[in-house]
User: What shape does this take?
Amino acid sequence: MINLLLSSMMLAIEAQKVVELRMVRLAWGGPAGWAEAQSMVTEKVSAAGEAMVTLSSGGSPETVVARYREHVAANTKRLAAP
Assistant: This one.
């Protein structure tokens, strides 16, 4: 239970960087901003579906949070690239 709490807290902290990077991309607008808006919605729906499948097939909440953190790390890397 402590691991889930700590992982969830880390997810919240790490997600703030993605929010910041996405807001910058959206604020710049243009084709890159539009693509990011579409990507954001698609990724959220996909991640939610993945979480539902994990939980309905007997996976743990810790597994779901760990997977969300992987998605957040990938987004941070992608959005921070020049």
The two ends are 38 Å apart (CA to CA). The mean pLDDT is 95. The CA atoms of residues 11 and 68 lie 8 Å apart.
